[in-house]
Amino acid sequence: MKTGEIFRFRKFKALALVATSIISALGFFWPFISDENRSSFFFWLATPLALLLLLSLIGQANLDAKSLALLAVLSAIIAALRPLGAGAAGIEPMWFLLILASYVFGASFGFLLGVQSMLLSAFLTGGFGPWLPYQVFAAGWIGLIAGSLPKFKRFQIQLLALASLLLAEFFGFLMDLQFWPWAFGPKTQLSYVPGAAVVENFERFITYHFASSMAWNVPRAIFTALLILAIGPGVLKTLQRAARKASFASEIKFT
Q1: Number of domains composing the chain
Q2: Helical segments of the chain, H only
Q3: Domain contains 34
């Protein structure tokens, strides 16, 4: 492939990733931009299609053997960690490793790690349903953000613990957002109202979100931060040592 063709192909992949993120974001935020309830079905359809496009791009990713092996191992570990908190309110140990690994290996790797870990966990737990594309993109965005955090020489664990509080809450916010329109009937104070003003629906959602956060989102955030503070230093050093021994001289990228 000629240089110009490679540049165009990489540019296409970057644009496609942006497009999939925009479509999936619409899948989350459609209650605030839609005037009619039936338009929600478009986004229920569009988000899985965006996920299929993303997976096709991952299949063409420019990852070397070491990167692929590392991605596979970490994805398997994170997927295995997820069911350990099943049944407990918001207790999901997978997030601390996703955040630490993404921080060490970079934003692009973190995005891939979040996507593949969530997909693999669905196979392990049988967690297939209309919620899966939302979980996949939310996990990918968490890896992307964690990998974009500044690499300080000091206070890394404190930074990651603080970031984990926000990222765990961010995941809960997105999951509440995708579930909220279907959570209640049409006549409660927390219900989604098709065609209502954006401000009105947003106020209803925020009320619902904070009402549910005490049961799931707050415990998830606190548990993830405590894990990072307790065992994060050892795990972080292990991941950094692995990065050095594998000779990852620069951030792992797939575009």
Answers
A1: 1
A2: 3-33, 40-59, 65-81, 94-105, 107-125, 132-147, 156-183, 198-213, 217-245
A3: no
Out of 26-40, 141-155, 201-215, which region has the weakest mean confidence (pLDDT)?
26-40
Decide: 50 and 26 in contact? Cβ < 8 Å.
no
Contact 227, 92 (CB under 8 A): no
Helix (H, G, I), strand (E, B) or coil at 219: helix
Q: Classify residue 13: in a domain, yes or no.
A: no
Q: Tell whether 199 is covered by a domain.
A: yes
Percent with pLDDT over 90 in the chain: 27
Segment 94-106 shows an average pLDDT of 93
Q: What is the pTM of this model?
A: 0.82
Tell me the torsion sign for CA atoms 101, 71, 127, 177: positive
CA distances in angstroms from 81 to 18, 91, 128, 216, listed in the order given: 29, 11, 18, 17
Give pLDDT tens digits for 212-224.
777 788 888 999 9
- C-alpha distance from residue 57 to each of 17, 50, 236, 250 (Å): 8, 11, 29, 21
Between CA 169 and CA 37 the distance in angstroms is: 27
For residue 138, the domain's CATH number is 1.10.1760.20
The verdict on residue 68 lying in a domain is: yes
Chain center to CA of 72? 17
Domain extent for 122: 64-245
| Contact residues for 219 (Cβ-Cβ < 8 A; gap 6+) | 88, 89, 90, 91
